[in-house]
Amino acid sequence: MQTAITHPGASHAHAHSHAHDHHEPGFLSKYIFSTDHKMIGIQYGLTSLLFLFFGFLLMLAMRQQLANPGQPIPLVGGLLLKVFGEDLAKDGKMAADLYNSFGAMHGTIMVFLAIVPLAFGAFGNYVTPLQIGAPDMAFPRLNMASYHLFFWGGVVMLASFFIPGGAAKSGWTSYSPLATVADLNNLIDGQTLWLLGMVLLISSSLLGAVNFIATIIQLRAKGMTWMRLPFFVWAQFVTGFLLLLAFPPLEAAGILQLSDNVLGTSFFLPTGLVYNGAVMDISGGGSPLLWQHLFWFLAHPEVYVLILPAMGIVAEIIANNTRKPLWGYRSMVYAVLAIGFLAFIVWAHHMYMTGMGTKIATFFQTTTMMISVPSVIILSALFISLWGGSIRFNTPMLFALAFLPMFGIGGLTGLPLGLNASDIYLHDSYYVIGHFHYVVAPGTIFGLFAGVYFWYPKITGRFMSEFWGKVHWFFSLIAMNLIFAPMFIQGIRGMSRRMYDGGATYFAAGVGADPGILWLNKFITHAALLLALAQVPFIINFFWSIRNGRKVDSDNPWQATTLDWQTPTPPPHGNFDKEPIVYRGPYEYSVPGAKTDFTPQGQPN
Amino acid sequence: MEIPYTVKPRPDTGLYNAKVGIWLFLASEVMLFGAFFSAYILLRVQAPEGFWPDVANGWPHGLLNIPIGTFNTAVLITSSVTVVMAWIALKQNDFARFRRFMAVTIACALGFLAIKTFEYKEKFGHYVIELTNGTRVTGHLDVNGHSPLFWTLKDVQAAKIEELKVLVDIPNKFRFPVGHTIPEEIHKAHAAGEHHKDQEFKVSDIASVKAFIPSTHPFFAIYFTMTFLHGLHVLGGAIVLFYFGFIGSGMWKTDPERFTNRIEVGGLFWHFVDLVWIFLFPVVYLL
Amino acid sequence: MSDSKHSGAEAAAGHHHHDYDFAAHKKVYWVVGGSLLVGTLITVLAREWEFSSVALTIAVALFIASIKAFLVCAYFMHLLSEKKAIYLILVTTGAFAIAMVALILLSDKDPVSGTRAKIHYVP
Questions:
Q1: What is the C-alpha to C-alpha distance for residues A494 and A544, in angstroms, rounded to an integer?
Q2: Closest partner CB to A245 (pick from C93, C111, C119)
Q3: How far is A579 from chain B, CA to nearest CA, in Å?
Q4: Which is deepest, A498, B33, B60, B99, by most CB within 10 Å?
């Protein structure tokens, strides 16, 4: 749509998709079995935000245990006892196995059920077809199938909490042989459901990846050449390829581990494995390292899946709120393609402690160092893009700006982990937890928050409250740093990850003097509570603004140049009346001689 | 606005949407089966010595029926030919010929699966028996004239058998890996046309009875996993081709070009399934 | 689509020319099919030859399989006449698949001393 038309009646959380050429679909077809990318994007968005919240709650319970090990968990101790029983939550206290299952599920839920579905499934689905000028995704029914596979995969994962033995408790990394022996009493245990859930989630992502890549290749509007694509679309394109090619080996590994758990095979169980003092009655001959290779073959590209969409969102918001084109767009495109390639050949930097030969370890160290270059190029280009801009400090921009140094810290702290020598000390310590949370929490999640505040007006026709948005931003930023910065200190001082009591018994046994770790545990937990409080205005703002937010005064309230802002609000089914034509690049802001400080991509000369 | 390029190809890429989609999907399948092949290679290369009876190294050879496997390969290759012929028949506007070739394709698929089922069943009744003195033999059981499946030592004991009758395999030369000298008596037995000899073992001398099932040895684990997964793809492909060819074939009347594209896309998947078998067959049966 | 039956065949020619030589293509498919069957027989019979080393045996088996795979891809899947986009996707995939297999196997070589148990199976 070239002209801005205010679409009345857009006061619903779920976008009304008016079908022009046939009758209104029923409730089920419109909201549950929709094939419209916008509705599917909203489905993904709401579901993943719920999972994000649930994963957050798991973390809060774990932090309680770390701050006050062995004490009953306040508020929810009784609930834990009722749900998990005496074995896992006697007197409302968190048993080690319960802590371990919360840890494994926190990681799994955050990565696979919250961040990726929000970044790729929600934002990707809603925005990508709009930004390329397409009426929908290439395969709408496949899109619907992707969402449902995600949803039911999530249900299976959640269900695992309620079965005997509880949820998976061998880390989100599910290393064998622990993942097989953790619950030998139950044939269908939490790990089995985890694996079944993963098969569903992986299938969802694979179908989604096929859809995204085919859509971007085939459905770009006339004039939308590759180098006129918004960086957001490039980011989603590379993310799609990462998902497409990296997930299948984990699916294979998942099937093999499922077979170990349920059929008694020994794909990952070595000969002579001893459990509880006795040699296990298994065939043996398997390789635990095989699981690690196949797992990390996915899990490393997965971290780029976590960050690239957020970088894409931040890029859009920075260009829009500096009122100038992105600096180094071309470099950013080549850099994101380079990340896409290199991502596949760095994975064993997660396995430096497995006794790999020095030649191969050096290979992985080299590729790992190489991949930091394109990441720095993208971050630098975004920083430089600020120079000389007329910066508008609205809530999306504040989150986008905060993303930059936070991702910088996250990325830089990854360097000692990517270098073999320093990793020998830091591996599996709290330093690692600090590093990856910096990249994903004040990194990606801030990018996603920015996206929520930015596209909310397009989806609902109303703004979220600026004031409460800024409150949310300010306290989240402080709290995130207070939570994760001390973890670097804890890690360097030798604290291991995944200790259910934060090291309390270690120090109590007099093994060594506590260099402040136990105090830092308490400090971090308080900061986590601050972070929890900071989300309250966001949650209220999100729902309140649907009906009560300030109405937009046009279809393009941010005065943006990309095609997604050239549609009615919200965009109708089919998005565009007729195929849009693109005349210029995506960031023609402040073009000298132009009447306004932005020239939309689809506006004729 | 309708979704473009569902039938007509996009000018700059020269492709219609479904073709891009299926090739992307096949790329992911390459990675899936590639991961399984990696697993196979790693497991085999690091199998401990003496892990399997009859030979000095850890990996069994020659346990799979090669003539049957070869025939199955031929069946799948034939189905690849017939599915592409079905597509060409459509382009020549010969719907009846298309139907015939599709029927043959699906029949081949079902035949492949039937033969595979027969092979699986034979394995489930084939055993490795470990004696208390440390020696191991392989063979089928003879319990009152029939050959039971999935038995363990517990089942033998529960059947109140005192002397277990086993048709002990005389290993064929393919049971020995490359470069390994084959014992003289094996040569003699094969020259005489013997493939197994009947032996009886006291149940009290038996330490374990394990069928050729996944939990018995990583070879079976990976063999069954990979062939079962491949079989699922054969089944899935057959179902889709059946739907395209018979149930959903009304599209030929309303949108013949789109229908032909569907057959092309389905055929591409089918050829991929054949491709996997082209590598899987020599790797698990012959090497 | 005015005349569905007639335009169907022509339109379904896709990226082929209007004077698409059906007979020639069909002949190619039969020949390729036959070659695949012959290749299968060769692979099976090759086992009768005693090769000097394991590596050579594997190389021969995979070589024959690769030729068969090439025939299926090139002719049945029309890859010989396919578009650049598809080639790019496949070459990328192939590179990553090879990297995955190679790097996993190479990681198993020359382990740091003392980190691998010497397993000898004792029945």
A1: 46
A2: C93
A3: 7
A4: B60
Number of H helices, E strands in chain B: 8, 5
> How far, in Å, CA of B127 to CA of A254, rounded?
28
**pLDDT by residue (tens digit) across A64-103?**
999 999 999 999 999 999 999 888 999 999 999 999 999 9
Residues in chain B: 287
Two tokens, residue A52: 């994000």
How crowded is residue C64: how many other Cβ atoms within 10 Å of its Cβ? 18
Half-sphere exposure of B259 (CA within 13 A, CB side): 28
Closest CA to A417 of A377, A365, A481: A365
Beta-carbon separation of A134 and B3 below 8 A: yes
Q: Which of A212, A344, A346, A420 to mutate to test the interface with C (most CBs of C within 10 A)?
A: A344
| CA-based radius of gyration for chain B | 24
d(CA A471, CA A474): 5
Whole-angstrom distance, CA of residue A109 vs CA of residue A101: 12
Chain B residues 180-239 within an 8 A CB cutoff of chain C: none
Contact between chains at A359 and C108 (C-beta distance less than 8 A): no
**pLDDT for the residue numbered C11:** 43
Q: What is the pLDDT of residues B52-107, one digit of tens each?
A: 765 545 678 778 889 999 999 999 999 999 999 999 999 999 999 999 999 999 99
Nearest by CB to residue A348, choosing from C107, C115, C116, is: C107
Token output for A301 = 């590209």
Best of B84, B180, B259 to disrupt the C interface (most C CBs within 10 Å) is B84
Q: Which residues of C touch A300 (CB under 8 A)?
A: none
Residue B129 has φ and ψ, to the nearest 5°, of -115, 125
Please check whether residue C40 touches B, CB under 8 A: yes
C112/chain A closest Cα distance in angstroms: 5
Residue-level pLDDT at A9: 39
Q: Which residue has the tokens 């059947």?
A: B159
Q: Which residue of A has its CA nearest to C116?
A: A355
**Angle value at C-alpha A416, between A414 and A422, nearest 5 degrees:** 145
Q: Using CB atoms, which residue from C103, C111, C115 is nearest to A345?
A: C103
Tell me how far CA of residue A245 lies from CA of A10, A57, A143, in angstroms. 39, 32, 18
Q: Looking at chain B, which subunits does it touch, using at least 3 CB pairs closer than 8 Å as the criterion?
A: A, C
Question: Nearest Cα to C107, choosing from B189, A183, B46?
Answer: B46
- A108's enclosing H/E stretch is helix A96-108
How far, in Å, CA of A343 to CA of A368, rounded? 8
Strand order in the sheet with B196-202: B196-202, B163-169, B136-142, B126-131, B206-211
Out of C32, C54, C108, name the one closest to residue B178 (CB): C54
Secondary structure in 3-state letters for A267-314: CCCCCCCEECCEECCCCCCCCHHHHHHHHHHHHHHHHHHHHHHHHHHH
Q: Nearest to residue A218, comparing CAs of A136, A144, A160?
A: A136
Q: Which residues of B touch C81 (CB under 8 A)?
A: none
Rounded CA-CA distance B66/B282 in Å is: 10
Q: Touching check for C89 and chain B: CB below 8 Å?
A: yes
Determine the Cα angle at A541 with ends A540 and A546, to 5°: 105
Q: Are the C-beta atoms of A131 and A109 separated by less than 8 Å?
A: no
